[in-house]
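stage 2 :: seqdesign
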C-alpha cells in the first residue's frame, strides 16, 4: 500500500473522514508530505466555511497525530511483514533438518549393512569353527585310534621280545622269500656234507682235547707263581682261570688252535669293586651300550659317597677323610690300585700293563721247569701268549684278566682277543661285558635235550670253516665267529629238538645261512642273552640283562658302510664258492648212503 495515502493505513477511517470533511464544506487540496513521513491534505477554505476554520484546523491536527501514533512502527510492529521472513527461515531450517535426517538415514543404513555383514562373518566363522571342531574330533579320534594301535603294537613287541624277540624266519614261507642269494647256487647235498665233516673236521676233535689239557695245566702253574711274586697286601688278588670260547665248546675248526682263558681278579683288602652297567638305570649314549665301569672303593665306604660331597662345609670345618693331605694320599693309592688318573675308576690299560709285568715275573720264576719259551705274541692283544718248543712247534693261548659282575658269571673284560666284537672302547675306564660262561652252559644244556649225534655243532663248524676259508681268499670282513655262534643260539632256542637230528644237517645249515642273510640285510642281529626274556631259569642268568633293551651286534654296519659292503660281498662270494670250497677237501665220496654224522655229543 503506498505510504502517501494517509487513510489507507487506518482501515475503515478513510470513508468516514472524507464524508465528514465533505459535509462540513472543506475541500481537500493536493497532499503534502511532512519531514516525519506523514501525509496530509491541506484544506482549501471555501467561502462558506471561513468562519469555522479555526476549530477544523485543530481537529485535523489531532487526527494527524492519532494517525501517526497508530501507524508508528515501534508501537505496532509489522506482524504481517515478519511472517514471510520467519517462514523462509523455517523452510531453510527444515531443509537443513531434512539433510541431517537424510545423512542420519544413510549412516544408519550403513551401520545396518555393517552389522549384517558382521553377522554373516560371525555366522561363517562359527560354521568354520564348527567344521574345525568336527575335523578336530575326527582327528582326535584317529589320533586316539593310532595311539591304541601303537600301544597294542608295543605290547605285542614286548611280548614278542620276551618270547621270540629275534625273528629267526623259521617258517618255510619266510625262508622261501629270504635267501635270494641262494638262487643259482649249487649247495652240496647231505651225503657230501656228511663226508666232508668226517674227513675234514671230525679228526681235529682229539687234537683240541690234548691242547686244552696242556694249556690249562701250564696256566694254573703260571698263575700260582704269579700269586707268589705279588704283594698280597698291595697287589690284585688273582683267582683260577676258566676256559671259554670255541675251543671249550668243541666247534673250533681252523688252525692254529687258540685257547681262550679268562682270569678273574679282585682288589686287596679293604678295597672292593663296585660296578655300574649301561642298563642299570642311568643314561648311557648309544655307543656305550654293552659297556660298564668299575669303581674301586673301600669296603666300609658308603656306596653313596662321603657327605662332604653333598654338603657345604663351613670355613672352620674339615673333612678328615677328604682333607688336602688325605686327597693326595688317596690319589696315590688309587693309582697303585690301577685306577685312571685322579679318579676311582679301574683303568683297563693299567690293568693289562700290571698283568703283563706280573706274568713276566711269574714265568721267570718257573721257566727252569719247562723245556720251552714263553712270550707275548701280539702287541695289540696284551694277553696273547705263545709257547715255543725247541722243535719249532708253538701253541698260542690268550690269558685275559676280567672282573666279576656282582655274584654272577658275567664278567667285565679289558680287551677282546682277536676279532673284537665291538668298536674301540669309548675310554680305558669302560669295560665290555662277556657272557661266554653262560653261552657255554647253554650249549651244554641244550645238547642234552637234542637227539643223539645232533647236527647243531656240525652246522656251526661247517659255517665257520667256509667263512674262514673265504676270508683267507678275499680278506677279512665284518663277520666274526661270535656272530655265527649267535645265529646258532637263536635257532637252537626257536627250532624244536627233533629238527636237529643228524640227517637234517643240510636243512639246518641252509637255515643258518638264510637267517644270517636276513640279519645282514636288516643290519640287525641281537645279542642272544641281552633282552632275551626266555633264557632258561636253570642257567641262573641275571634278570637285569633279560629286562634290558636288546643289543644289536650289527650296529657297526649302520655306521660303517664300507665295512658293511665288504661283509655283504664276502658273504655272497662264500655262498657261490660253497661247493668249490667243500670239494677242494673232498678226495673220495663214499657210495653208501650216509645216515648222519657220528660224533660225541657236546
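stage 2 :: out
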Amino acid at each position: 500500500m503506498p505510504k502517501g495515502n494517509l487513510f489507507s493505513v487506518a482501515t475503515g477511517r478513510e470513508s468516514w473522514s472524507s464524508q465528514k470533511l465533505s459535509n462540513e464544506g472543506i475541500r481537500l487540496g493536493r497532499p503534502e508530505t511532512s519531514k516525519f513521513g506523514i501525509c496530509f491534505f491541506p484544506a482549501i477554505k471555501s467561502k462558506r466555511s471561513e468562519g469555522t476554520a479555526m476549530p477544523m484546523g485543530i481537529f485535523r491536527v489531532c487526527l494527524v497525530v492519532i494517525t501517526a501514533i497508530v501507524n508508528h512502527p515501534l508501537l505496532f510492529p509489522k506482524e504481517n511483514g515478519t511472517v514471510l521472513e520467519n517462514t523462509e527461515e523455517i523452510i531453510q531450517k527444515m531443509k537443513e533438518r531434512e539433510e541431517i535426517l537424510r545423512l542420519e538415514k544413510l549412516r544408519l543404513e550403513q551401520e545396518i549393512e555393517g552389522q549384517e555383514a558382521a553377522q554373516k562373518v560371525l555366522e561363517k566363522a562359527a560354521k568354520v569353527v564348527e567344521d574345525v571342531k568336527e575335523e578336530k574330533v575326527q582327528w582326535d579320534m584317529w589320533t586316539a585310534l593310532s595311539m591304541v594301535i601303537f600301544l597294542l603294537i608295543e605290547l605285542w613287541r614286548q611280548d614278542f621280545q620276551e618270547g621270540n624277540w629275534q625273528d629267526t624266519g623259521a617258517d618255510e614261507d619266510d625262508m622261501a622269500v629270504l635267501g635270494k642269494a641262494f638262487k643259482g647256487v649249487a649247495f652240496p647235498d647231505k651225503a657230501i656234507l656228511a663226508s666232508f665233516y668226517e674227513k675234514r673236521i671230525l679228526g681235529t676233535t682229539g687234537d683240541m682235547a690234548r691242547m686244552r689239557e696242556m694249556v690249562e695245566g701250564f696256566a694254573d702253574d703260571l698263575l700260582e707263581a704269579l700269586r707268589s711274586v705279588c704283594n698280597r697286601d698291595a697287589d690284585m688278588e688273582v683267582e683260577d682261570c676258566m676256559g671259554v670260547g670255541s675251543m671249550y665248546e668243541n666247534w673250533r675248526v681252523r688252525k692254529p688252535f687258540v685257547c681262550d682263558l679268562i682270569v678273574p681278579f679282585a682288589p686287596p683288602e679293604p678295597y672292593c669293586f663296585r660296578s655300574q652297567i649301561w642298563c642299570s638305570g642311568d643314561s648311557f649314549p648309544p655307543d656305550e651300550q654293552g659297556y660298564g665301569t668299575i669303581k674301586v672303593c673301600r669296603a666300609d665306604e658308603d656306596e653313596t659317597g662321603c657327605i662332604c660331597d653333598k654338603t657345604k662345609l663351613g670355613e672352620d670345618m674339615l673333612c678328615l677323610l677328604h682333607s688336602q693331605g688325605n686327597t693326595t694320599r688317596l690319589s696315590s693309592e688309587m693309582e697303585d690300585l690301577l685306577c685312571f688318573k685322579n679318579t676311582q675308576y679301574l683303568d683297563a690299560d693299567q690293568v693289562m700293563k700290571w698283568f703283563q709285568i706280573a706274568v713276566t715275573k711269574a714265568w721267570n720264576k718257573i721257566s727252569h721247569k719247562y723245556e720251552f719259551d714263553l712270550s707275548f705274541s701280539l702287541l695289540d692283544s696284551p694277553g696273547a701268549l705263545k709257547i715255543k718248543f725247541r722243535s719249532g712247534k708253538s701253541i698260542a693261548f690268550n690269558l685275559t684278566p676280567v672282573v666279576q659282575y656282582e655274584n654272577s658269571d658275567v664278567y667285565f673284560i679289558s680287551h677282546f682277543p682277536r676279532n673284537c666284537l665291538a668298536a674301540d672302547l669309548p675310554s680305558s675306564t669302560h669295560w665290555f661285558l662277556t657272557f661266554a660262561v653262560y653261552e657255554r652252559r647253554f650249549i651244554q644244556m641244550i645238547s642234552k635235550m637234542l637227539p643223539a649225534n645232533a647236527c647243531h655243532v656240525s652246522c656251526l663248524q661247517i659255517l665257520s670253516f667256509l667263512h674262514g676259508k673265504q676270508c683267507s681268499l678275499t680278506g677279512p670282513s665284518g663277520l666274526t665267529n661270535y656272530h655265527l655262534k649267535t645265529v646258532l643260539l637263536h635257532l637252537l632256542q626257536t627250532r624244536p629238538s627233533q629238527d636237529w637230528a643228524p640227517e637234517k644237517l643240510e636243512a639246518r645249515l641252509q637255515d643258518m645261512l638264510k637267517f644270517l642273510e636276513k640279519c645282514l640285510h636288516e643290519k640287525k642281529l641281537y645279542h642272544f642273552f641281552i633282552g632275551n626274556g626266555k633264557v632258561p631259569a636253570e642257567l641262573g642268568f641275571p634278570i637285569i640283562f633279560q629286562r634290558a633293551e636288546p643289543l644289536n651286534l650289527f650296529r657297526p654296519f649302520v655306521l660303517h658302510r664300507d665295512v658293511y659292503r665288504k661283509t655283504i660281498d664276502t658273504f655272497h662270494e662264500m655262498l657261490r664258492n660253497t661247493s668249490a670250497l667243500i670239494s677242494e677237501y673232498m678226495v673220495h665220496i663214499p657210495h653208501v648212503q650216509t645216515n648222519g654224522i657220528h660224533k660225541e655229543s657236546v
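stage 3 :: structure notes
- The chain has a mean pLDDT of 77.
- The CA atoms of residues 50 and 582 lie 187 Å apart.
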